[in-house]
Amino acid sequence: MDSCVTAAIAVQECDEIAALHVSYGQRTEARELQAFEQITDFYRIERRLATDISHLAQIGGSSLTDSRIEVSKADLEMKEIPTSYVPFRNAHLLSIAVSWAEVIEFNRIYIGAVEEDSSGYPDCRPEFYEVFNRLIEVGTKPETQIRIVTPVIHLKKSEIVLRGVELGAPLHLSWSCYRETEIACGDCDSCALRLRGFQQAGLIDPIPYKKRE
Fold first, then answer.
1. pTM of full prediction above 0.90
2. Which residue of 7, 84, 101, 185 lies most exposed, with the fewest beta carbons within 10 A?
C-alpha cells in the first residue's frame, strides 16, 4: 500500500517514470509481483524492471524468507524488531535502483518507507536514507545526481490511506499481507497496520481478508 501511494505521488510529480520490482524470496513474492504488474498497468508505466535477489532467502533470518520461522501474530505495541525484518533488505533494493537510475539518467528514486514501521525495521528510518543519499554521492560518477525520495516516511497509515484516496491510487490492487496470496490473513503485523490505517481514516479496505479485527 505504501509503495502504491508512493507511486501515485511520483506519477504526479514526475514527467517520466520507471518502475522497479524486487523479489527477494519472500513468501508472497508471486502475489507482490502481480500487484506490481497491475499497478504499473494502471499508470501505464512502460519502462519496468523486475529483478530477483532470492539469495536473501538463502541467507534467511526472517520469517518472510525462511519457512522455518513463523510469521508472528500482530502486536502493534511491540517495540522489538519483529521476525519479519529482512536483514538490510532496503539497502539491496536501493542499490539496484541506484544502478538502474544511473544508467537511464534518472535523478530521483521514490521508495515507500514509513517511519511508523521503524520500531521494527531499522532500514525504514529517515536517517537510513540520509546516509544512503550520501553513499550515492560518493559511490557514483561525478556527474550523477540521484537522490532518494521518501514522501510518506513521516505519515501515519491513516494519512497514507487518505493521501492515496486523494490521488486516486489503486489501493484495491495493492497487497500487504506477509502470509497469504489470495485472501489476506488479517493477523500479521502488515495486515494489522493496514487495517488500522483504513479504520482510522474512516474507510473500508477494498482487499479481501480472512478476518478484519
1. yes
2. 185
